[in-house]
Amino acid sequence: MAAAVGMGQQWVLVEMVQAFYEAPAYHLILEGILILWIIRLLFSKTYKLQERSDLTPKEKEELIEEWQPEALVPPVSKDHPALNYSIVSGPPSHKIIVNGKECINFASFNFLGLLDNERVKNAAQASLRKYGVGTCGPRGFYGTFDVHLELEDRLAKFMRTEESIIYSYGFATIASAIPAYSKRGDIVFVDEAACFAIQKGLQASRSNIKLFKHNDTADLEQLLKEQEIEDQKNPRKACVTRRFILVEGLYMNTGDICPLPELIKLKYKYKVRIFLEESLSFGVLGEHGRGVTEHFGINVDDIDLISANMENSLASIGGFCCGRSFVIDHQRLSGQGYCFSASLPPLLAAAAIEALNIMEENPDIFQILREKCKRIHKALQRIPGLIVVGDLFSPALHLQLEEPSGSRENDMKLLKRIVDYCMNRSIALTPARYLEKEEKCLPPPR
Amino acid sequence: MERPEQGPGEPDSHPRANGCSLTGYGALRNGYVRGLPEAETQIHHIAHNGGLYRRPFNEDFEETPMLVAVLTYVGYGVLTLFGYLRDFLRQWKIEKCHHASEREEQKDFVPLYQDFENFYTRNLYMRIRDSWNRPICSVPGAKMDMMERLSHDYNWTFTYTGRVIKDVINMGSYNYLGFAQNAGICKEAAAKVLTQYGAGVCSTRQEMGNLDKHEELEKLVARFLGVEAAMTYGMGFSTNSMNIPALVGKGCLILSDELNHASLVLGARLSGATIRIFKHNNMQSLEKLLRDAIVHGQPRTRRPWKKILILVEGIYSMEGSIVRLPEVIALKKKYKSYLYLDEAHSIGALGLTGRGVVEYFGLNPEDVDVMMGTFTKSFGAAGGYIGGKKDLIDYLRTYSHSAVYAMSLSPPVVEQILTSMKCIMGEDGTTFGKECVQQLAENTRYFRRQLKKMGFIIYGNEDSPVVPLLLYMPAKVGAFGREMLKRNIGVVVVGFPATPIIESRARFCVSAAHTKEILDTVS
Question: Is there a contact between B382 and A345 (Cβ–Cβ < 8 Å)?
Fold first, then answer.
């Protein structure tokens, strides 16, 4: 036929028409049906996978009527242990009046006894006479007083770092410092027993968090090795993810010290930065009270950031971070608790300066503190049924039940009875408070 | 457009023309401000609900004139180009590098800061850095003493000459009622408590830090606000960031205003709830979000929301606008959601007796579920509080993060709050408090009128003591700060990133301690 023959030849229109006339009928009919089908598909409506029914306004009104929210807060039972606070009248110093009873105070963090010190109070009075109470503004807008600058200077000199920065609240210090450096996509290796403020800081930073077992450098090294293997798979990403190790000098939850020399070795081996949180160890460890770096004899420049709060040893309110200017200066613009919050009331800053003066003049109080801690620790070991959780020279100790009954509530009740018994014999203790639902690794009742 | 909601028992609003609506309460004109003939006054949002407001609500945000906007962008463009040029020079060591750098031993670590993050800081912020962080060495009252600061290398480092500039008029501190004083009854009381109790507390609220003074303070705060109970915290910022997570969690919805403060944003993020943002003070946007939320439920599972919490502020610190509280409360009641009101700037500053924005609008404090505020601004102290029903406060006493882990207020600070609050309430026997509140209101109106007469663009509500004055161009920001200092007036200038990039402004905080002469000098 002409159609078959035309394979190698050039098609001419006339020949095309000829081929058309000479094609078999079934061929033409088939092609016609195909063309009609294609046209139909092109013009038909798109096929929806599921029927989306838009609600009529009436139905919307009904939904709005029906919706019942939960109560804003769930009711709290009247005898919840944390509801009724013990009321302290008078200063919370060594002898404390709790609920009308005078007791020896073993429950406040007043480690160096500076809360009641006359010199500190006089310095605060002088500052009150000069500045009034509040600062009425954040640091950026006329809230920077010369006392703040002086305190920052003194703290930097005391800790032998280049610069320090002051926050007006201890909790906010570490909770603002972490998100200033560690952002989404960065990796932070944190000890399991980290305190709540650190956990909140990490949550706010949205970084990847890797927990390692408490004070277990082998576990940490394992995690670091795994991370290194990950890095080799994706070197470009690894060049920009920052890595941090976050540890506490003296842990609030367990009372023991972090193994800092090994951590420094790991730092240089795996190229991670170390952030040290020294709330309990500042003013306690070390010959002159400079904290865990002095205790181990480590060069303070090896630690990238030291953060502490002034509410324990310095008997004031607030917190500070110190380190090299390269690191600390960044927080002046990006620390949320620094930029968006009023500055520390000057009388508290003056109290802190005076407390620092006392610490520098009498370096033997740290030795006295250590002796006392050792004595108490030894004495408490002898109590049957209770284990002492904490290092030999840690001023904050936990007493934990040796045989927990398995139910947290019962344990807490028993501990409360122990606390009440002690109060009746003029010793003030307190059960350690935790928010049970919020803590990542809830410590056992103590 | 949907018919907006009526308040209970209000008469029908008459048909509106140009946003003026007259109702039976006697000519209430809402939202329509007769601006200056040459300026283009555009109203952002017109209050439809004439009947809810018992006094005129005059708020306006003028549109940026086109020429100024273009010039501002050009200004930023030039600065950015220069920035790139200098970075290039610094990299090639032609220009000296002033800022601190990494340790030698740690040079091969992953860099701590991305270069681009700090571009703005290095090149734009450094040039005008001397307008911020100015140290003072006296009470932050109406007049203050500033330490003189000089820079020889273009603001990279500062040296203090040791001289003190005396009597600088203070238009920057949040000293609304003038309680920042170092003499007087507040100071005497605080001094006594300091001698008795010491400066710090050294314990958390739930452990051993609950002094009798704290209990006294909380009862007083509850009485002041007109609520059942209250609870106080050591820091205003952390009041928000630690209590919002205790109230809402996953499965709840937070509707937050566009321009909310960083503490509210942080608290909302830490809570884990879904956050949706409505346009600033725009009730239609809020209503639409509420309706959509209830009708459609949670995003993917379509389950109903557990709770809806609306976060608003009393006075917005960068805009000077006041929240449209009557409408928000009407919406909240209709859609059964909860309201969290942050009165950081408005407590003590608004209202006939200084009770805040609730009193300013004449509403019932029990309508607001959570009333939060700070003591830093009007009371001259530090710390924050939350007030509300007894169930709420009991719950917060048990479960708030701050009560369990953070320190309580320092005793002299508590005493300052007690005395100043009693003074404002008039319980100390004098009318000093009431006079302060009235003085503040007068000062605000006077100051705003003066500035408007001079032709500046002022944002915000007429009754708000926060007065933002638009500057727009980046160069003006630095120049304004310096020139005002030369004339012995200390002002606050704010630019990007606290404000949108073309709307840099200078912000004045009017105080009751300012006298008419001071205000005249400033104008």
Answer: yes
Q: How far apart are CA A135 and CA B85, in angstroms?
A: 40
Q: How many Å apart are CA B155 and CA A9, to the nearest integer?
A: 85
Residue A108, token pair as written in the block:
């406040």
Give the pair of three-digit tokens for residue A405.
């009954």
Q: Which residues of B touch A63 (CB under 8 A)?
A: 294-295
Task: Using a CB–CB cutoff of 8 Å, tell me whether A217 touches chain B.
Answer: no
CB contact under 8 A, A96 and B103: no
| pLDDT tens per residue, range A413-446 | 777 787 778 777 777 777 776 666 555 555 555 6
What are the chain B neighbours of A172 within 8 Å (beta carbons)?
235, 237-238
Helices (H), B102-171: 119-120
How many whole angstroms separate alpha carbon B299 and alpha carbon B305?
10
Given pLDDT bands bounded at 50, 70 and 90, which one contains residue B136? Answer: confident
Q: Which of B173, B176, B60 is nearest to B462 (CA)?
A: B60
A160-185 mean pLDDT: 88
In DSSP notation, B186-222 reads HHHHHHHHHHHH-S---SBTTTT--BHHHHHHHHHHH
What Rg value do the Cα atoms of chain B yield, rounded?
24
Q: How many CB atoms lie within 10 A of CB A385?
A: 10
- Is A403 in contact with A387 (CB distance < 8 Å)? no
Give, in order, the Cα–Cα distances in Å from A217 to each of A208, A221, A230, A274, A277: 19, 6, 20, 14, 17
pLDDT in tens, A347-375: 889 999 998 898 888 888 888 888 888 88
Please write down the HEC assignment for all residues of A17-77: HHHHHHCCHHHHHHHHHHHHHHHHHHHCCCCCCCCCCCCCHHHHHHHHHHCCCCCCCCCCC
On whether ipTM exceeds 0.85, the answer is: no
* Helix or strand holding residue A386 (H, E): strand A386-389
Cβ-based contacts of A64 with chain B (< 8 Å): 291, 294-295, 335
How many CB atoms are located within 10 Å of the residue B145 CB?
14
Pick among A125, A129, A141, A186 to test the B interface (most B CBs inside 10 A): A141
**DSSP of A206-234:** T-EEEEE-TT-HHHHHHHHHHHHHHHHH-
The owner of tokens 């002002």 is: B491
